[in-house]
Amino acid sequence: MKIKIFSDPKYVPQGVNPVTILQPFWSKYLEKNQSPWSNYINDYINIADSLFELTTLENADLAILPFDWLHVRGNTWKPQINLSRMHLALEFSNIVKKANKPLIIFFTNDSSHEEISIKDAFVFRQSLLASQRKPHDFAMNAVHEDLVKCYLDNKLSIRQKKDKPVIGFTGFANNLSWDIKLKELIYQIAMLPKGGADYLPYRGHRIRTEALNYLSQSSGIETNFLIRDNMAFFNETIDIETKLQLRIEYVNSIVNSDYMLCCRGRGNFSFRLFEVLCCGRIPIFIDTDCVLPFDFAIDWKKYCVWVDSQELPHIAEKVIDFHQNISPQEFIDLQYECRKLWEKMLSNEGYFSNFWQHFHAESKLQILSS
Length: 370
Prior knowledge:
12 helices, Rossmann fold, single chain, globular, alpha/beta, 14% strand
């Protein structure tokens, strides 16, 4: 189902790339990158013309703000509005409004329910709170390379079921020191009156650390944990070769585990969830009032060991119970299904191939009735 889109590169701020959905249509923004994680868009480029058609505003099904709202408000807990970019966004939204066309905005900031100053737009976010979700809010996928293709010679490895589940995690987790707890408390008190308490820099890491501690204490599981003291991969001072080594180490930790712990970070979403599914492994997903992509079409609990954040002390029991009640063949089948879900719905090409479903499901926007 091809969607007719209106956008305009003249509204892209200097030094900013367009949103991913538009990049294949404006070739000057496409670059050849050496790092595998920079080539996340390649497969989508090959099919973009079959999914979307750029057209005039008059003939369009919808309009897309050509740059991420992140570039208007910044990526800190306190909005730092760029007035020139806000002006561009408002100018674009006004011409769309006059044409009576629906407007799409992408917003990859970690804030979970911050209002967009452009009213009535459909906002696609990475981070959402289910309890505060607006009717026109949708969850985005996380953008990353195909880990199987880039690091595993395009061969999906499948694990056989063992008596004990092997649970993996590689990444940053703090040690719940008193100064971290104090910082979080001060931050929460300061931000609560301002409506920003969902953006807690340490909350996700605290929950993650608690989960790792509970899992480590269980004799009924095997752990495959590599705890880092910082978020090294996203450190801009680290060279590409070191980052590649860290990336390979991370992917290997996934494929050498049966299950992987997936919990929110600074924002209320888990990037790791999508990477685990990509590798055909079963996520242990800690639900912190999350909204996941295509929640109206995907039965997410079918693909995860689902743990409500209030059930955290019982996380090991839930994993063991899940593992004991799945047959060896079902365990194998689920690995294939996790990979297939990522390919068909959550990779860039999968997500945008199914982009139309958001509007088919949204009763207030019947732009795609056939």
